[in-house]
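Action item from last meeting closed. Structure (413 res):
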């Protein structure tokens, strides 16, 4: 290929890219904003991250502002913007339990909320700085604390639908996740969220199916919402087996290994990045899988021991010392010497990371309020002092009352 042909190809490629950008910008010209503001219903599980696109806006608006209200017409409104449309935060920097004002970003007019919590449920508006709204969402973030796990391999079935007159409460399941392991027996699951059907829903909320919205939607009256709160999300789990995809090794790496093997026994080379961590004996540990989300297929192994959710899922057995929560984190309560080893993490059917855990009983432990055990000890101590103080004050108040009202017993003959 000569220089002229290469120049022509680069020019054509640049024109196609420019055409693609113009097409993306013209989406807002082809999508008129509704004259009457409607709310799109969307439901998520706690700790998930979600994106709310601003599907329409006037052409002259260059930066959007997102607003949040707990209920329609509420007096308190949060403004979610930096007034420049810049990226405010990254998902990897978000901590659990932090306020929503530090857990969002605005990218290409879309609102991203990281690690959503049930308190983030409410109404989200896309608009301008002056308070003009273009598009709106009705977001329902359902808590995973009471999630019920159903194992198909054990013959278990999901909960039956509930019928209360014209109110129909049921579970809507998402698609099955990929198999969490390859080459060996793995597991896959699907998340089910609470939905209901009722004829008395507000017409301002746009529904995919007529008269059907998520249980925490603002379209549901408060009385019906309280009744549907007892229907917790579900997790359906089943076994699966898939082969591993063979990846070609790098030629240079193979040459180095062959050269080292000629000199002696080849060294142990980890297949995934491994991090080293020392944990004090008797203290708890929570391990996270890098880049994993609650909706991902995540699995945990210790050396050659597989932690299947059928046995190690949170809530299966209350006395478990090692368990996996619904956010795909591995918990170890009160670490023991037998916990030493390499813990591998699988994500979407591929082993991605490892943690070599060492247990030590030496060294002085520095207490910190970021440690859950330290916080629990302080809370128990404060509760004990408050209880003793309450008993002391109650006794003295009773003695004063008896003295004032002459209720003291008379022991004179």
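Sequence:
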């Amino acid at each position: 290929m000569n220089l002229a042909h290469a120049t022509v190809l680069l020019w054509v490629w640049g024109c196609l890219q420019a055409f693609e950008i113009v097409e993306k910008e013209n989406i807002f010209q082809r999508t008129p904003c509704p004259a009457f503001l409607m709310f799109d219903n969307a439901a998520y599980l706690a700790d998930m991250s979600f994106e709310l696109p601003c599907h329409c806006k006037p052409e002259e608006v260059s930066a959007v502002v997102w607003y949040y209200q707990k209920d329609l017409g509420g007096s308190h409104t949060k403004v979610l913007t930096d007034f420049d449309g810049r990226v405010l935060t990254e998902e990897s920097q978000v901590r659990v339990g932090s306020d929503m004002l530090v857990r969002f970003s605005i990218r290409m007019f879309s609102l991203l909320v990281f690690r959503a919590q049930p308190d983030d449920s409410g109404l989200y508006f896309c608009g301008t700085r002056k308070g003009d709204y273009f598009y709106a969402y009705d977001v329902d973030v359902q808590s995973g604390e009471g999630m019920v796990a159903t194992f198909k391999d054990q013959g278990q079935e999901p909960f039956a639908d509930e019928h209360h007159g014209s109110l129909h409460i049921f579970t809507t399941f998402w698609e099955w996740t990929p198999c969490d392991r390859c080459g060996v027996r793995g597991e896959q699951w699907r998340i089910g969220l609470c939905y209901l059907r009722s004829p008395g829903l507000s017409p301002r909320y746009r529904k995919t199916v007529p008269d059907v919205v998520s249980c925490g939607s603002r379209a549901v009256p408060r009385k019906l919402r309280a009744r549907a709160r007892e229907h917790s999300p579900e997790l359906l789990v089943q076994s699966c087996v898939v082969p591993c995809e063979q990846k070609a090794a790098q030629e240079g790496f193979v040459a180095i290994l062959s050269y080292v093997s000629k000199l002696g026994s080849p060294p142990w080379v980890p297949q995934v990045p491994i991090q080293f961590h020392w944990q004090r004996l008797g203290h708890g540990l929570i391990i996270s899988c890098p880049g994993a989300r609650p909706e991902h297929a995540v699995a945990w192994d210790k050396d050659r021991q597989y932690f299947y959710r059928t046995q190690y899922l949170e809530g299966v057995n209350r006395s478990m010392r090692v368990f996996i929560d619904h956010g795909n984190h591995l918990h170890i309560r009160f670490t023991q010497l037998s916990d030493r080893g390499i813990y591998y993490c699988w994500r979407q059917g591929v082993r991605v990371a490892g943690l070599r855990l060492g247990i030590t009983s030496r060294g002085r432990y520095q207490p910190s309020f970021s440690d859950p055990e330290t916080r629990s000890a302080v809370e128990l101590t404060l509760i004990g002092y408050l209880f003793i103080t309450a008993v002391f004050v109650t006794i003295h108040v009773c003695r004063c009352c008896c003295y004032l009202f002459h209720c003291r017993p008379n022991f004179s003959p």
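Note appended to the action item: The longest strand covers residues 185-197.
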